[in-house]
Write a structure and sequence with these properties.
The chain contains 28 helices and 30 strands. It has 797 residues and is α/β, with parallel strands linked by helices. It folds into 4 domains: 117 residues, Orthogonal Bundle (Helicase, Ruva Protein, domain 3), CATH 1.10.8; 180 residues, Rossmann fold, CATH 3.40.50; 223 residues, no CATH class; 179 residues, 2-Layer Sandwich (Ribosomal Protein S5, domain 2). The chain has a 7-stranded mixed β-sheet with strand order 23-24-22-21-26-29-30, with helices on both faces. The longest helix has 58 residues. 36% of the residues are buried.
Length: 797
């Protein structure tokens, strides 16, 4: 019988039994509606969604697969369904400042009606305005005004002609306009006649010509004044007809939207602009087929754009407040953009090209974003924070182009009322909280999702109902109680704790899907425990190629691992390798050499920069232990090298510090260590063994190595006693322990461990400061004292 304390098979796992569950299949269970085991996070989420204060946005912290995303979505939708749908938002033309489009809001569902009303208005006016100016009454009044002007101008010209004749002049039209020509002998004077005139007569003629010309200028002025009066009358006529034609349909809209001052104000501006630009509507019916007038045709097409309504947010189908998830929070996806188009080689834009972002769609509700996604786009992150701080959304393009843009718009900002929910891990939260001042002010609620929960009867029942829910929702075969028990066991293994369940539900769901598939392959109407085990085994098999290759290298002696003899200064340590979705344990040879000197303990990995800071700390602790235990009466004068043999990819962590200490003690005492017992565990300066992670993988990794070489009944692993609660070993290891073929030793101190490894008592120091003869520590003490004496003699020389 082994004299050292070892764990019985019953303590190597906490297996769930079918009898604990209280059902035969999951078909008997009520589906689960609530999230499991996240009371802290649920409380924080509910409070954060309830409080409507500035800065109380939510950061949901936790690992992927803990249900954080689905819960954030479901609770947001649940609360949003009880709230009213937010307003519709649209952009319209700004007649006072065309580069600053106006934002108009209307109650949910009225936005698209307003769009239709404005389209109908424009269509109606396109028909009614030209028709109004083609009517008989308009033509009659216009003709009367024109005839009146013609009569007036005729009378004025007739009076002038009479005056000119009396003065001996006549009018002649030329390229320079109207000319007054003197009459001699009943005929217009020729140029030669003028030259032949006597000087006195010529002077008299020039004075008379000046007088007649002056009278002509006065006459032309009278005609222009008459023309202006006629034109003013026509404009008054057209304005009257325009007002009659335009005012009535716009007045109808004013009355329809009388409760919305912003719409009424806009309609007043529309009416004023249409009347001012009535000629544009009159040109619509004109045929312009000449290519030389293409720009005029473009203007005719474009002038009605300013009366359109760009509805960017339409909540007509909303049943409550919006819940929007943005999977790609790039700047324009999140905050909106202004699009452009190429016209005749010129890049143009207008208010109808304004496009909303997800923050617009979520305005009045909830926006869910993964922090790791938005962190990749600093512009998006800054834009989101700016919108939250300013409580408004400003659409602006942030990237400039080399092409010439004919106009740049600055749309009116839209008020923002939103609750932003960020999803991320705790590392991201801590970094943002420390380095981003805005984050602390804007995200005051942290909902922290746990990775595990107590494995209590209530939670086990919820877990079973969770399985039942997925069976019903995803059309899976129902699980019998033994299959559910296997799922519970798998959950405990994921949690690495006998009394806890994992909340990494994505991993659990994968097993449910795959177990259902194996049941289908097996032509079974129900999922049984063998199908769950098959799913777990096959999931491992798909990912453990590297583990198999490493074991082959150990089998063939390429990687040197001894599992039989005893060796001085050599211990089998255990480490865990993570390769994405799979982790496994593997043995590593740790060796120590000691000799006289004053270099202290040298970590070879540190010297070649292959170790991390935590591992280096663990090595430095060893000196503290040796000094306290063996160097109270003389200096600790030694040199020692510690090495992880055949290590080529670096080492980190302190879980091998006890292993290194055992190798040192063995080297100093010159007592061999059992190679068939592997070691894991960190140690402090007092020699107390401390817990480590990955204990199940480490045990199973060494067991696999020993099994492939053939178990002799001596093989085993030493673990920190604190890690007993973390044991959820596979059935094969438990069976081997039960048969006495493999052993697991829980260790509390270095002294316990060295005795197991060497079968030699460590020894307790006496009052004289010496360890008893026949103990390992006596040998260590003597060796260290010898080194101190040698160094003293060496220094004396």
């Amino acid at each position: 019988m082994n004299k050292y304390k070892e764990l019985p098979a019953s303590e190597l796992a906490n297996r769930c039994q079918c009898e604990e569950l209280g059902f035969q299949t999951t078909a008997e269970l009520e589906p689960l509606d609530d999230i499991i085991g996240q009371e802290r996070a649920v409380s924080a989420m509910e409070f954060g969604l309830t409080i409507k204060r500035e800065g109380y946005n939510i950061f949901v912290a936790g690992l992927t697969g803990t249900g954080r995303s689905s819960y954030a979505r479901s609770i947001s939708k649940s609360i949003a369904s009880t709230e009213k749908a937010p307003d519709d938002w649209c952009y319209v033309y700004n007649f006072d400042n065309p580069d600053r489009p106006r934002a108009i809001n209307l109650p949910a569902g009225k936005g698209h009606i307003f769009v239709e009303d404005m389209d109908k208005l424009v269509k109606k006016l396109k028909l009614s305005i030209p028709k109004a100016f083609e009517g008989e009454e308009y033509e009659k009044q216009r003709r009367e005004i024109f005839e009146e002007f013609q009569n007036q101008s005729s009378d004025i010209m007739e009076a002038f002609n009479q005056y000119a004749n009396e003065q001996g002049f006549t009018l002649k039209r030329s390229e320079q306009g109207l000319l007054t020509i003197p009459i001699i002998d009943g005929k217009p004077m020729e140029e030669g006649d003028y030259v032949n005139l006597e000087s006195a007569k010529r002077k008299q003629l020039e004075e008379k010509t000046y007088t007649v010309q002056k009278k002509l200028m006065e006459t032309m002025k009278q005609i222009r004044e008459a023309e202006k009066k006629a034109r003013d009358k026509i404009e008054e006529l057209e304005a009257r007809i325009s007002l009659i034609t335009v005012e009535q349909p716009i007045q109808e809209l004013k009355e329809k939207y009388s409760s919305y001052d912003n719409v009424v104000e806009y309609l007043v501006a529309v009416q004023k602009d249409i009347i001012q630009n009535i000629e544009d509507f009159r040109k619509i019916e004109k045929s312009q087929g000449d290519d030389s007038e293409i720009f005029e045709k473009i203007n005719i097409k474009d002038f009605t754009l300013k009366y359109k309504v760009n509805l960017i947010i339409d909540n007509k189908d909303a049943k409550g407040a919006p819940v929007v998830e943005e999977p790609h929070p790039k700047y324009y996806n999140l905050l909106g953009r202004i699009e452009f188009e190429n016209k005749m080689g010129l890049v143009t834009t207008d208010f109808t090209k304004i496009k909303p972002g997800s923050i617009h769609l979520a305005n009045g509700g909830y926006l869910i974003i993964n922090m790791s996604d938005i962190a990749k786009s600093p512009e998006s992150w800054d834009g989101l924070k700016r919108a939250l701080k300013n409580k408004c959304i400003t659409i602006e393009n942030i990237y400039t182009s080399s092409v010439t843009i004919s106009s740049a718009l600055k749309p009116e900002p839209i008020p923002l009322d939103i609750k932003v929910i960020l999803l991320g891990n705790n590392y991201l939260y801590q970094m943002l909280y420390i380095y981003d001042d805005d984050f602390r002010k804007l995200f005051k609620i942290k909902a922290d999702f746990d990775m595990e929960m107590p494995s209590e009867p209530e939670n086990i029942n919820k877990y079973s109902r969770f399985v039942s829910s997925h069976c019903k929702e995803k059309n899976l075969r129902h699980f019998d109680c033994k299959a559910v028990a296997q799922v519970i066991n798998y959950s405990r293994r994921l949690a690495e704790h006998k009394h806890k369940l994992s909340t990494r539900f994505n991993d659990i769901v994968e097993i449910l899907y795959e177990a259902d598939a194996w049941a289908r392959i097996d032509s079974s109407d129900i999922v049984k425990d063998v199908h769950v085990k098959k799913a777990i085994e096959q999931k491992k098999y798909r990912s453990n190629k590297i583990e198999e290759k490493l074991q082959e290298l150990i089998d063939t002696g390429v990687i040197l691992i001894s599992t039989e003899e005893r060796v001085i200064g050599q211990v089998n340590g255990l480490s865990v390798m993570n390769i994405g979705d799979y982790a496994f344990g593997k043995p590593s040879r740790v060796t120590a050499t000691t000799f006289a000197g004053d270099k202290g303990i040298i970590n070879i990995e540190r010297e070649v920069e292959m170790s991390g800071s935590i591992h280096d700390k663990g090595v430095l602790i060893l000196s503290g232990y040796l000094g306290e235990k063996f160097a109270q009466e003389f200096p600790l004068s030694l040199s020692a090298n510690i090495c992880f043999e055949q290590l080529y990819d670096g080492v980190e962590g302190d879980s091998a510090s006890s292993t290194e200490l055992y190798a040192l003690l063995s080297s100093l005492a010159e007592v061999p260590i059992k190679q068939y017992i592997a070691v894991t565990g960190s140690v402090n300066q007092k020699g107390i063994i401390q817990p480590i992670g990955g204990v199940n993988e480490k045990i199973e990794g060494f067991y696999l190595t020993c099994k492939r070489r053939g178990l002799t009944g001596k093989e085993g692993v030493m673990i920190p006693h604190q890690n007993v609660v973390n044991l959820m070993l596979n059935d094969e290891v438990i069976e081997a322990v039960g048969k006495g073929l493999f052993h697991i030793y829980p260790v509390t101190t270095i002294e316990e461990g060295i005795e197991i490894l060497t079968d030699m008592p460590a020894g307790t120091i006496g009052e004289d400061g010496k360890y008893p003869e026949g103990t390992l520590y006596n040998l260590v003490q003597k060796k260290i004292e010898k080194y101190a004496r040698l160094m003293e003699e060496f220094d004396g020389e």
